[in-house]
Amino acid sequence: MKLIIAYIQPDRLNAVKQALYEKEVFKMSVTNALGCGQQKGYHETYRGADVEVNLLKKVRIEVAVNEGFVEPTVEAIIKGARTGKIGDGKIFIHSLDECVRIRTGERGSEAIG
Amino acid sequence: MHKRNKALLPMLALMLAGLAVPVWGAEGGVSNEMFTINNTWMMVATFLVFIMNLGFAMVETGLCRAKNATNILFKNTVIPAIGILGFALVGFNLMYPGKFIIPGIFGFSGFGLGTDAAGVTSTYNVGYTYWTDFLFQAMFAATAATIVSGAVAERVKLSSFLIFSAVYVSLIYPFVGSWTWGLGWLSKLNFHDFAGSTLVHSVGGWGALAGALVLGPRIGKYVNGKVKPIMGHNLSMVTIGVFMLWLGWFGFNGGSVLSADPGKVSFVLLTTTLAAAAGTIGAMLTSWTIQKKPDFTMVLNGCLAGLVGITAGADCVSVSASVIIGLVAGMLAVLGVMFFDKLQIDDPVGALSVHLVGGVFGTLAVGIFSTNPDYTFMTQLIGVASYGVFCFPAALLIFWILKKTIGIRVSEEEELKGLDIGEHGMEAYSGFQFFTNS
C-alpha cells in the first residue's frame, strides 16, 4: 500500500480529478496548501506598493492506493497537472503501513479499495 | 413616465381617478413651496437610484466566485462613473433632445450640460430643476450599464468591457431612450414604459445577451452537454444587494412620477413593493416545485424580477394586477435561468432572466392590465420589439468589433486563476483560503 501526496496548481485540480477518474481512481482527499518550490513567487501590487508573494496557493491531493494502482495514479496526476511551466508541482510517494475503514473495521488492502 | 410633457399629467390624473388632486393650475405653474417639495423628492429619488449601483455590485459579486470579486467590484465602481460622465457629455442631450433632427428617431442638442436662469425654476418643469433632471436620468443610465456586467462576469476582459459600457451607455441607451421618453416616435404611438422595464432593463438585457453569446460560457459550466453549477461565494452579500435594490426601486419608480404628487407617488410605491413581494413568493413556489428544495438565489432573482416587471406599469395597473405581474415575473425568473442554461448561454447572475425576460414581460403586461385603454397590447409589443431589434444587433456589433480587435475574453489560465490576480494583481480576500480551482 502506498500513500501518494501531490502538490499541484489549484487551477489544474479539475483536470487531475478527471484524469484520476479515467484510471478508475475515485478516492482522494484534497486540501488547500501554501508553498513554494522552484517557482519562488510573484509580485502583487497593493495601493501602489509592490508585494512579494512567496508562499503560493497550491492544492494538496492525497490518494491511498494498492500497489497495482501506484503507476496509473501517478500517470493520471502528471497528465492532469503538467503544463510544462515551473510550478506544476511535485508528487511524493510513501509506503503505507496500515489502513482501517472505520465503519466496518476492515484492514489493509480491503479497506483501501 | 419620464416624458417632459405637461399635457400628459391630466391624463395620468384621470387614470388614477379619485386618488389625487393636481396641485398645479391649468397653466402648469406651482407655488414655490410646492416646487421645492417636488424637487426635494426628486433628489431623494435620485439618491435611491444611485445606491442601486451598490446593490448591483453586491448581487453580482456574491453570485460569482471569490477569485473574481475584486474584478466585479471594480467594474461596478467604474461603470457608474463612466455612465454619469458619458451621460453628461452626450447622453442627456441625445435622450432628451427637445427637437429631433430625424423626426421621432434621432435628435441631439449639443455636448455637455448647461441651462439658463429659468432652468432652476418651475418654468423648466413643475417637478424639478434642470440639474435634478440630469442627475436623476444619469443615475438611470448608470444602472442600465451595470446590468450587462453580471452576464459577462468572470471571463470578460476588463478593458474591452469598459469600452463597451462607455459606448453602450453614452450612445445606444440614450438614442433608443429618446424614442419614448424623449417624446420620439414610440411615445406618439402611446407606447407606455413608466420607469423603464424596456428602456432601461431590457436595453441592458439585450446588451447582456449579446455579451454572453459572443463571449461563450465560463470554463467548466457546460461539460458534455450537462450543466455544472458554478456556485456564488457569498449569499449574504447577494441578500444585502437585493434589499439595497428593493430600497432603490422606491426611487426608481417613485421618482419616475416626476413630482411629489402624494397620490401618484404613494400608489407607485405600493404597486412596486407588492410586485417585489409577489416576485419573491412566485420564485419560491416555482423553485420549490421544480427543484427539490427552494433555491435561495432563485428567490433573490425573483424579487428583482418582480421589481423589473412592475416598472413599466407601476402607475397604471390595479393593485391586484401588480401582484399578478410580480408573481409571474418571479416565476419567469426561475424558468428563465433554466431556459438559458438549456441553450448553454452562461449568465452567472441571472441578469437575462431578471432584466430581459422580466423587462419584456412587464412591458407587455401593461398592454394586458393597464387601466388606461390607450395602452394597447399591440403598441406595447411594437415597443418591446423595436428595442430588441435595435439594441441586440448593436450590442452584438460592438462586442464583435472588440473581439476582432483587442479581444474580449481573458486567457484560459487567467480565467482559472481568477481575474483578480490576472486583471488587477490583487485579491479581494487576502489572507483567506478559498478553493480557487473551480
Question: Which class do the helix and strand fractions of chain A yield?
Answer: alpha+beta
Number of strands of chain B: 2
How many angstroms separate the termini of chain B?
A: 45 Å
Number of strands of chain A: 6
Major beta sheet summary of chain A = 4 strands, antiparallel
Give the number of domains of chain B. 1
| The top level CATH class name of chain A | Alpha Beta
Write down the oligomeric state.
heterodimer
Walkthrough of the structure:
The complex is a heterodimer of chains A (113) and B (438). With 113 residues, chain A is α+β, with helices and mostly antiparallel strands. Chain A has a single domain (2-112), classed as Alpha-Beta Plaits (2-Layer Sandwich), CATH 3.30.70. Helix content of chain A is 23%, strand content 36%. Chain A has helices at residues 13-22, 70-81, 109-112, and strands at 2-8, 29-35, 42-46, 49-53, 56-65, 89-95. In chain A, the strands form two sheets. A four-stranded antiparallel β-sheet of chain A has the order 2-5-1-6, covered by helices on one side. Chain A has a two-stranded antiparallel ribbon with strand order 3-4. In chain A, a hairpin with a 2-residue loop joins strand 3 and strand 4. In chain A, helix 1 (13-22) runs antiparallel to helix 2 (70-81). Chain B is mostly helical and 438 residues long. Chain B has one domain (34-424): Ammonium transporter AmtB like domains (Ammonium transporter fold), CATH 1.10.3430.10. Chain B has helices at residues 8-15, 32-63, 69-95, 130-151, 158-177, 185-188, 197-215, 235-254, 262-290, 296-311, 319-342, 351-369, 377-405, 412-417, 419-424, and strands at residues 222-223, 226-227. Chain B has a two-stranded antiparallel sheet with strand order 1-2. In chain B, helix 5 runs antiparallel to helix 13, helix 7 runs antiparallel to helix 12 (351-369) and helix 9 packs across helix 11 (319-342). The longest helix of chain B has 32 residues, at 32-63. The N and C termini of chain B lie far apart (45 Å). Classes of the chains: A alpha+beta (113), B mainly alpha (438). At the A-B interface, strand 3 of A face helix 14 of B.
